[in-house]
Design brief:
Layout (H helix, E strand, L loop, with lengths): L5 H13 L6 H10 L1 H11 L10 E5 L6 E4 L2 E2 L1 H5 L3 H6 L3 E7 H5 L4 E4 H17 L7 E5 L4 H13 L2 E5 L5 H11 L3 E5 L1 E4 L2 E4 L1 H10 L5 E5 L21 E4 H5 L11 E2 L3 E7 L7 E6 H15 L11 E4 L6 H7 L7 E6 L13 H9 L3 E5 H9 L15 E5 L5 H10 L9 E4 L1 E3 L4 E5 L13 E2 L5 E4 L10 E2 L3 E6 L9 E2 L4 E3 L21 E3 H7 L7 E12 L4 E9 L4 E3 L2 E3 L1 H8 L5 E6 L2 E3 L2 E4 L1 E6 L7 H14 L8 E4 L13 H8 L4 H4 L11 H14 L1
Parallel strand pairs: 4-17, 6-7, 6-8, 8-11, 11-12, 16-17, 16-18, 18-19, 19-20, 37-38
Antiparallel strand pairs: 1-2, 3-13, 4-5, 9-10, 14-15, 15-27, 21-22, 22-23, 24-25, 24-26, 26-30, 28-29, 30-31, 32-33, 34-37, 35-36
Length: about 700
């Protein structure tokens, strides 16, 4: 059966319904970022989005932050995900295909039908209603990537409750830093999880979470270590008297045929996700139902070319933990009526005997047509000598996706050489770049464009992305072509944050008296207000324009009428490990809690075409020296408080941490120095509190450069 690209279907739609034709992709992209209202209304129409009330206007206020989209429309994420249940079920397509490590070892996958998915979502929603959960209440989960997690999320969405999720491999400090901010009423949790062939009991962590979250009045436990079918919900000890204990398996066996998701305003909060900066607690980012829906449909369908399973047979897999935004992206496949394929476990098999064929065997068993993973996964497969086409039957596979960090050139060549050909051609490899911050992508691919090794294919439709120079006196950058600059989005996207949870508001410095406020207004002046931390995070460098924090180069290709892009890693000091961002402050709290450690500094160095390297530098108390035992304890503290992926590659003892005159750790200058920058261009010794401290780092940078 020939495959018509979804972007081609969309272009036919534009021609037939709106009389629009475009000479090439660049022309289509420029229209999409110039006439925002026409573009986004076409997306609404193309996907036949439903609302019981009409929207008054596509874009009521274009300001960033604070744009108002589709005012008057009512939507619900769960309603969209479940709207074609009967037709999909009648055709025999499952909603979810799933395996964990034991299932994969037995050569089996399990399936959840569309009818059963809807029934379980209704059962869970009714149970939550029985606990008094209403619109706006927060429901948090500490669960792995299993069908039950998707069910609970959709149940929360159906009620208008606000969802938030952490992976059970995260330690209590990192989880509490997130959940404590939003004061959840209900906590879903597992008793443990299996990873790399090892069972990890998390009951102690769950008890600590409940004990440290006084707002939690209900704990709903999913037993996994004792067997999926077990009803035993043993928290491993006493819970606070305020907290009632419930069994998720018992909930999901109930049936309520009459339940329907509630219609909600377009910008009603859907979830809170977290993206960390270099200081303070993780940013608790609030996204809305409508923005996430319309951005997710555009990205997964038009750019990732993942169509409805009915008529196409699509099955969508993107390997992810529940602590990464790609979990949200994969669940978003349901919005387009696509079967999603979930794997819970290690991509490398057993810890003591790594096997990088694991996910490829799952892809074969699940008959995945689209396979996505972090860039580090592909690099590991290359180094391990894995040839997926020789591992299992991957005849259904037609596309690969990559994100999380820059994908090395040799990984492109490896994929084309070692993955099955599709219709006699190299498999389509689409690398995307976006983020948790707006639950979407700025840069992605198209199956209708040529592939260039080491390069992402295009800027996403609707995303006015440019590479900008340093800001001038007016706070504007110069747009750069074929030069490296800051990734800036110059016009709003529907999925950009509604707000940061708990963010203190102040008058928007760009607002004029009497302006219509984007989310609220200053009572005294009527001027628009904006969250202080939201502004500092994304709009401080270029006021009124989104600065994402990545280095980017826009690469023109006039021969085929498109511009590719290369991402060179973070332009700030945030840690980005395998796609999961963590603030340096979170790591410092874990490390500096050790009695031997006085001070510390960490940088995450991402190199195009090479593995990232994350060194940790520590200042120790007098009388202590860094030996193997202490280094192991430091790494163990990071692993326990944050996660295994945030353990530093190396630990160094230094005499002092470079600091500014105001006492701030000089993370970004040290990062730039270690990535090869001229010391004179990134270090201003007269602005430092301890200028001599940088000499050691300069020597390290020179030694690394000499070693290649």
């Amino acid at each position: 059966m020939s495959h018509e690209a979804q972007i081609t279907r969309y272009q036919h739609f534009l021609h037939e319904q709106r009389g629009l034709q475009f000479a090439d992709y660049d022309a289509l992209w420029r229209w999409s970022v110039t006439d925002l209202e026409a573009f986004w209304s076409s997306i609404w129409q193309f996907f036949d989005l439903q609302s019981p009330t009409p929207y008054a206007r596509v874009l009521g206020d274009e300001r960033m932050p604070g744009a108002r989209w589709f005012e008057g429309a009512q939507v619900n994420y769960a309603q969209q995900a479940l709207r074609h249940v009967e037709a999909l079920h009648a055709a025999g397509h499952p909603a979810i295909v799933f395996a964990d490590e034991p299932l994969l070892a037995a050569g089996r996958v399990e399936s959840l039908s569309w009818l059963e998915l809807r029934a379980q979502v209704a059962a869970c929603a009714r149970a939550l209603q029985g606990l008094g959960v209403m619109r706006g209440d927060r429901v948090c989960a500490y669960l792995p990537n299993r069908p039950e997690t998707t069910v609970v999320f959709l149940a929360c969405a159906s009620l208008g409750a606000i969802w938030s999720l952490c992976s059970p491999d995260m330690g209590p400090v990192a989880v509490l830093d997130r959940f404590r901010q939003i004061e959840p009423k209900v906590l879903f949790a597992c008793d443990g999880y299996r990873y790399g062939g090892v069972a990890h009991d998390r009951r102690g962590v769950v008890r600590e979470l409940v004990g440290q979250l006084p707002s939690v009045s209900h704990l709903v436990l999913q037993p996994l270590l004792g067997g999926v079918a077990s009803d035993a919900v043993d928290p491993g000890g006493a819970l606070p008297g305020r907290c009632a204990l419930h069994s998720l398996p018992q909930w999901l066996r109930q049936r309520d045929a009459a339940f329907e998701p509630e219609w909600l305003p377009f910008d009603h909060p859907l979830w809170v996700v977290y993206s960390s900066g270099t200081t303070g607690l993780p940013k608790a980012i609030v996204h809305g139902h409508g923005g996430v829906m319309i951005e997710g449909l555009k990205l997964n369908t038009l750019h990732n070319d993942i169509g409805p399973t009915l008529g196409s047979g699509e099955r969508y897999h993107w390997y992810s933990s529940t602590g990464w935004i790609m979990w949200n992206c994969q669940v978003g496949g349901l919005l387009g009526s696509t079967t999603i394929c979930l794997f819970d476990g290690s991509p490398a098999g057993a810890s003591k005997a790594p096997d990088w064929t694991t996910l490829w065997r799952f892809a074969a068993l699940s008959k995945a047509t689209f396979f996505g993973a972090g860039a580090a996964f592909y690099a590991s497969c290359l180094k391990a000598g894995v040839s997926p086409k020789n591992v299992a039957d991957l005849s259904a596979l037609r596309a690969l996706g990559s994100t999380g960090s820059p994908l090395a050139n040799e990984c492109y060549r490896w994929a084309w050489d070692h993955c099955p050909k599709v219709d006699g051609r190299d498999i389509w490899l689409t690398a995307i770049s976006g983020g948790t911050d707006f639950a979407g992508a700025f840069i992605a691919g198209l199956p209708t464009l040529p592939m260039v090794e080491g390069e992402m294919q295009c800027r996403c439709l609707g995303a006015a992305v440019e590479a900008w120079s340093e800001p001038d006196a007016d706070g504007r950058g110069r747009s750069l072509i074929d030069e490296v600059g800051e990734l800036v989005c110059t016009r709003p996207l529907p999925s950009m944050p509604l707000r940061l949870w708990g963010d203190a508001e102040e008058a928007d410095p760009l607002g004029a008296d009497g302006a219509v406020p984007p989310r609220g207004s200053s009572p005294a002046s009527g001027r628009p207000v904006v969250g202080r931390r939201l502004h500092e995070s994304y709009f401080d460098m270029y006021p009124g324009f989104w600065r994402h924090g990545d280095w980017i180069r826009i690469v023109p290709h006039p021969a085929w009428g498109a511009s590719g892009a290369i991402i060179y890693g973070r332009s700030d000091a945030t840690i980005n490990r395998h796609g999961v961002r963590m603030g340096t402050s979170e790591l410092y709290r874990a490390v500096e809690a050790l009695p031997e450690v006085l001070d510390s500094l960490v940088v995450d160095l991402e190199y195009l075409g090479r593995e990232s390297w994350m060194p940790l530098f520590v200042v120790l108390r007098e009388g202590h020296a860094l030996d193997d035992a202490l280094a192991a304890r430091i790494k163990a503290a990071v692993r326990a408080a944050l996660s295994p992926r945030h353990v530093p590659n190396d630990v160094f003892q230094v005499a002092a941490i470079p600091r500014t005159l105001s006492g701030k750790k000089m993370e970004l200058p040290v990062k730039k120095l270690l990535m090869g920058a001229d010391p004179a261009s990134v270090l201003k010794r007269d602005a430092m509190a301890n200028a001599d401290s940088v000499d050691w780092f300069i020597a390290l940078a020179r030694a690394r450069a000499a070693a290649g």
